């Protein structure tokens, strides 16, 4: 027979009500009693009944994360950060992929709502602000790297403009003659991270008195073609590529090295997101770190506050990015 909370209480020498508080993750239970209850639960093999708890608490202690997919390692890193942040609050993340298809995204969200998730974290969403606002009326919603929609929808954003400014300033200081921004196809769409990164690049070039030299190339196909296009524009390979993300930077670096050029010495490359691709041992890409742990904790905290009665208008938390320098831009160190 499955052990009950009363069995746990009897073994731990506490009341059943206190066992219930421990199961719910109540922070007011003393460490000593919490430990006694947890040891009793482990000894008896007690597992809380999630369905019964959901009925009592009127919540499932789950959060739905919807991403465009996982071909970009950034979203895998994000999912892991959300998992850690959720576990710190005794929550379980459920993960769904939209495959960057609007109808699929809406279907995943509807399914999560049917499952009774406590809130939704959306990243790379294709939904309109109006649609997101309506969803926010049904369940707490936090957007990642996109400004909040109307209503009570919250958002956590990396300061992408600042991040790309850091990358651009670093490339100029390293001594590269020409600076090129390899941008995403969404760079001209307001409210997107791609647009904010483009804005940061152009602002940095202007601040350094080099606005007329700022070149942006939209990556619509093979990154190698964009790299060769830049070399043709300047009739030179003394170029630093500031890339929209680590995926583009990785492909650019591979193309550069395949042509016998020294990464960092002859040509500079900077990525964005600081994923595992950036620290790949044979490339060592300089990259911008968005602070995923802080971003994830902020998003989960906002969902929790909505669950606890916060009904004010949408809030925005901005995360400061950091520049992580590696071999791909260390011209001053490597070039004689």
The residue fraction in helices comes out at 40-55%
Query: Would you list the SSEs in sequence order as H and E?
Result: HHHHEHEHEHEEHEHEHEHEEHEEH
Terminal CA distance reads 75 Å
Question: CATH superfamily assignment of the largest domain?
Answer: Response regulator
The portion of residues forming beta strands comes to 15-25%
What is the count of β-strands? 12
The radius of gyration over CA amounts to 24 Å
What's the total helix number?
A: 13
- Poorly predicted runs are none
Structural class: alpha/beta
Reading side by side through the largest sheet, how are the strands ordered? 2-1-3-4-5-11
How many strands, what sense, and barrel or not for the largest sheet? 6 strands, parallel
Shape by Cα distribution:
elongated
Q: Assign the CATH architecture of the largest domain.
A: 3-Layer(aba) Sandwich
Q: CATH class of the largest domain, please? A: Alpha Beta
Overall average pLDDT: 90
CATH domain fold name of the largest domain: Rossmann fold
Would you kindly provide a written description of the structure presented here, covering whatever features stand out?
The chain has 336 residues and is an alpha/beta fold. It has 3 domains: 3-47, Orthogonal Bundle (434 Repressor (Amino-terminal Domain)), CATH 1.10.260; 60-157 and 290-319, Response regulator (Rossmann fold), CATH 3.40.50; 159-288, Response regulator (Rossmann fold). It is built from 13 helices and 12 strands. Helix 8 (160-173) crosses helix 9 (193-207). The radius of gyration is 24 Å and the shape is elongated.
